[in-house]
Each structure stands twice: as C-alpha cells, then as structure tokens.
Amino acid sequence: MRRGETTIAGLDVGTTKICAIIAEVNPSGQIDIIGLGQSPSRGLRKGVVVNIDSTVEAIKKAIQDAELMAGAEVGSVYTGIAGGHIRGINSRGVIAVSGKSKEVAHADIDRVVDAARAIQIPPDREVIHVLPQTFTVDDQDGIREPLGMSGVRLEVEVHIVTGAVTSVQNVIKSVNRAGLTVRDIVLQPLASADAVLMADERELGVILIDIGGGTTDVAVFRDGAIWHTSVLALGGDHITSDIAVGLRTPTYEAEELKKRHGSALTALVREDETIEVPSIGGRKPRVLSRQLLSEIIQPRAEEIFTLAAREIARAGLADTATAGVVVTGGSAIMEGIPELAEQVFDLPVRRGHPMGVGGLADVVSSPIYATGVGLVLFGARRRSQGTVLAGHDGAGVRKIIRRMREWFTEIF
C-alpha cells in the first residue's frame, strides 16, 4: 500500500546501526512518525562504507521493518552522511544587483550564493551543502532574507560542507542497490540539529555534539545559522573497545556493560556498587567494582569532549555558545555524559531528544534516533519549499541546472 506524496523516509547510515524512519505529513502540516526499522551495521567503519554488500543487506532489513510498521512502501529516502572525510569551511560571495529597479530578486540570491561556492576544492572532493548564514545589502548587514530589498551590492556569507567523492558515492551506491533512490544527501549533524535544537538556542549560539558509534559530529550555530561543522573519528565504539581490553571481556559483552552499567563520571558511582563481568574463553565471570568500569569510560569520553572543544576554539567560536551545549546520539544516553561535558566546556549542557513530531513520537524520543528524525524533518521542509529535485543526487542535478544557466548567459 502506498500513501502517496505525503510519505517521507529518512535513512541514518551509521557505524553501529542502520535506522530507517518513515513519516507522513498530516492535513494540518504536522509530521507524524508512522514507521521505524533498524538493523545492526557491519559494513561501515568510522562512518565510511567499507563493505557495500553488508551495508545493502542492513539497509534492506531496516527499510522492510519500517515499511511493515508503517503499512507503506517507500521508493526514495533522505540519507545521512558523516565520516572523517567531511570538511566544513566558510566563504563569502559578492555581486552587483541586476535589473533596472535594483531590487534583489531570486536570481540575484542564486548568483551571489554561486559566487560564494566558487572556491577551489580538490578533484576528489565534492560539495554536499552550501548553507547561507547572513546577507549584506550595500552597508546593511545581518539580513536573513534579502528578497525585494533595494540596493546595488549584495553579499553573502555561507558555510560550505564538502566530502570525499568516493565516500559519498559508496553511500549512494549502497542505497541504490537496496532498491531505493537517494533524494538528497544530508550531513548528519545538520539532520540531528533539526530534531533536537530549539529556535532560541540557534539564535543565541549553541554547540551540538552528536556522539555516534564510529564518529562524533560537532556543529556550532549562532544567529540562527550554522557556522562550523566537523567530524571526529572517535565515538562510542572506542569506549566499548577500551572496556573490552581493560576488563578482558568480549566486545559484545563490553557493549552491554557500557549500556547497562556505564557512567562517564566516576564521582557519580558509589564505591560499594559491583558488576558481573563475563570472561573470555569460557572462564568464570568476575565480580568487579562499577567504579573500575567508570574509570575506563571517563578518560575516553573526556577525550571526545576535549577534542570537540579544541576544534571549536580553533575555529574562533569558543565564546559564541551562549545557550550552552546539546549532546545527542546513542552514547549521550550514558549516565554522567552531560555532567562531564559541563566540566570540559564550562557551559550548561542538556541531552538532545527528538522534538517536533507526532505519531509514534514516544517510540523515537531517544537520542539514538536524533539523526533519523532530523532527516524526515529536513525532507518535509525541503518538500514544502519545493526545492527537492528528483533523482539519486539532488546536488548533482542542481549542478547541471547551474551550468545550463551559465551557458545561456554566455550565449545571450
């Protein structure tokens, strides 16, 4: 059964899990979650596809489960992307306003954004997003929407996100082989931000930290726009690995110990608490102090937050987070994560839970689903704006249209 054009699907292709979320736009414009499916991910490492066949099977399983719950079929998805290959840079573009009336038109906005994106990037990289931050008309700066304003000079500051061509294409190829079309590729922290950040946080300035399995995504917002993105090649899997080595226990048991008993701050754990730790090779389980587990987790979690803080300081944005820090992603569920982040950043910290959706909202209210929910919210917004172009890669289609416009300008 198909539910028509009101159905939107998001596909979070993560290092530890593939998560598919199906949503429907109801008559009042509210986004209702109607389907959820997930499958263990064994074909990615640090956010990058390393085994296409394993990734395809996991995608198929997640989509099938989501379709079964939703009672609907999907043919296209909005897909998240992350990984150490992601780079974010800020750029500026300037043009003269065209037309006799000297009023800023849609064509002028397109031209100034194109001017800002005309930066030198290596041939093995491609532009994923060009995100306008603020416009300036003549000497008037801080403008969000310049359309219709009078002026002779239009400037824009943008944030450009680029990724490795091969990594992006491998994600698209995996989704296509699973029988789906990619409507657009979305940077995962951008999607997560749509789901967990409030409008006033974006305005005042906020740091978003999405701790996934293989990577930690960092994004800084201020004045309602994004000013910095980066991806750290550290995540929850590294904490699990430390536990497995430190306690000499199988990796899957280490993951369970982390989920059930883990604490990122030793000070929160009572001295008399104990846990049963399975051993390797059929040996008897051991009873150890829970503080010992926390002492293994805390240094790695602290390293993740410290690297994120250094990254933000290097970008010159350390003093912009007036609203504090929002931590989301699967590892954000762990006890002590917000408290540890507060110590590192010296800012107020909260966990980010998906917001702004109806339907099965209680099912997807965990930080684990922040990216998936954000993808369907992103897709719904793009659809309402009428900016989504059909095809496996919306960005590629936009490039063709822009080049055609350049040809017509050269000819006429």
Indicate the topology.
Layout: E1 7-13, E2 17-25, E3 31-40, E4 44-45, E5 48-49, H1 52-70, E6 76-81, E7 87-96, H2 106-117, E8 125-137, E9 140-143, E10 153-164, H3 165-177, E11 181-187, H4 188-196, H5 199-204, E12 206-211, E13 216-222, E14 225-232, H6 236-247, H7 251-261, E15 274-277, E16 286-289, H8 290-314, E17 325-328, H9 337-345, E18 349-351, E19 358-359, H10 370-385, H11 394-411
Parallel strand pairs: 1-6, 3-19, 6-11, 12-17, 17-18
Antiparallel strand pairs: 1-2, 2-3, 4-5, 7-10, 8-9, 8-10, 12-13, 13-14, 15-16
Helix pairs in contact: 1-3, 4-10, 6-7, 6-8, 8-9
**Could you tell me the radius of gyration in angstroms?**
23 Å
Low-confidence stretches: 388-412
Name given to the CATH architecture of the domain at 199-352: 2-Layer Sandwich
Mean pLDDT: 89
Strand content: 25-35%
What is the overall shape? globular
Distance from N terminus to C terminus (CA atoms, Å) equals 49 Å
CATH class identity of the domain at 199-352: Alpha Beta
Detailed description of the structure:
There is one protein chain. This protein has 412 residues and is α/β, with parallel strands linked by helices. The chain is 36% helix and 29% strand. Helix 6 packs across helix 7 and helix 8 crosses helix 9. Strand 17, helix 9 and strand 18 form a beta-alpha-beta unit. Among the domains are: 76 residues, Dna Ligase, domain 1 (2-Layer Sandwich); 154 residues, Nucleotidyltransferase, domain 5 (2-Layer Sandwich).
